């Protein structure tokens, strides 16, 4: 049995910072106290404190903004690839598998958003498809904006676990766009994003679910069509929903 290592001074200090964040219920984007304040509270050297902060930056808990200070990261401590998807080398199969995972919960997430979204969230969700449509018309990349649209819906659901899951699945949205990149896919995105946003804005639970499910199912069909065109076996023609 391996001997348990005692935490270093830096590790202990990083845990102290985490406890401070939790006890003060700090949120992503909130600024931490100054370095001088932490030095007084924790009674550690400046070098130890800075190394502890670097450790938390590496863990996506903190972010340093030059000239501004240290802030709680919007990445919420989630690793860049928590599911190890970078080591699945079949991009088409990965895109298809991830779409099936999204189909399991995103239609219901849209339902929840239609019920629970605040007025500000409804406004932002309604504006997002117009921004994406503008990017597509200009021939500019829109993967980040597409990801943000789905993330906003997850956050508007009122379920914080779903919000975290959607953040993790951002890589899936980007992968789906790369695999299905063509005019037909773009039209699907524009049309259904507008429909989804309108349903959520109007509080129409049934339409929000249906348009999200249809949107994702069509993307799934695009991936299957591309796989079959490339001579790849799918065995997944049947929709999970």
Automatic annotation (TrEMBL):
Q: Which PROSITE patterns match?
A: HTH_GNTR
Which ranges carry the HTH gntR-type domain?
Answer: 7-75
Name-wise, this protein is: DNA-binding transcriptional regulator, FadR family
Q: What InterPro entries does UniProt report for this protein, alphabetically?
A: GntR_C, TF_FadR/GntR_C, Tscrpt_reg_HTH_GntR, WH-like_DNA-bd_sf, WH_DNA-bd_sf
Source taxon at top rank: Bacteria
Keyword Transcription included in the entry's annotation: yes
GO MF annotations, alphabetized: DNA binding; DNA-binding transcription factor activity
PANTHER family xrefs:
TRANSCRIPTIONAL REGULATOR, GNTR FAMILY, UXU OPERON TRANSCRIPTIONAL REGULATOR
The answer to keyword Transcription applying to this record is yes
- Known Pfam families for this protein? FCD, GntR
Q: Which SUPFAM superfamilies match?
A: GntR ligand-binding domain-like (SSF48008), Winged helix' DNA-binding domain (SSF46785)
Q: Give UniProt keywords alphabetically.
A: DNA-binding, Transcription, Transcription regulation
Question: Which SMART domains does the record match to this protein?
Answer: FCD, HTH_GNTR
Q: Which organism is it from?
A: Propionispira arboris
């Amino acid at each position: 049995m391996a001997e348990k290592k005692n935490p270093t001074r830096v590790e202990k200090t990083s845990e102290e910072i985490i406890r401070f964040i939790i006890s003060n219920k700090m949120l992503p984007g909130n600024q931490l106290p100054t370095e001088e304040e932490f030095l007084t509270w924790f009674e550690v050297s400046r070098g130890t404190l800075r190394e502890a902060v670097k450790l938390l930056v590496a863990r996506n808990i903190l972010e340093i903004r030059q000239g501004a200070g240290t802030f709680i990261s919007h990445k919420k401590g989630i690793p860049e690839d928590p599911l190890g998807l970078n080591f699945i080398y079949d991009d088409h199969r990965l895109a298809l598998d991830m779409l099936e995972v999204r189909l399991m919960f995103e239609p219901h997430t849209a339902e929840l958003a239609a019920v629970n979204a605040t007025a500000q969230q409804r406004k932002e969700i309604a504006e997002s498809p117009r921004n994406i449509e503008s990017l597509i018309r200009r021939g500019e990349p829109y993967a980040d904006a597409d990801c943000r649209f789905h993330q906003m819906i997850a956050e508007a659901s009122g379920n914080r676990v779903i919000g975290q899951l959607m953040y993790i699945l951002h890589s899936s949205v980007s992968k789906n766009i790369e695999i299905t990149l063509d005019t037909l896919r773009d039209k699907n995105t524009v049309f259904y994003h507008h429909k989804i946003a309108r349903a959520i804005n109007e509080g129409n639970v049934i339409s929000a679910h249906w348009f999200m499910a249809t949107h994702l199912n069509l993307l799934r069909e695009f991936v299957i069509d591309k796989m079959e065109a490339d001579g790849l076996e799918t065995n997944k023609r049947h929709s999970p929903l």
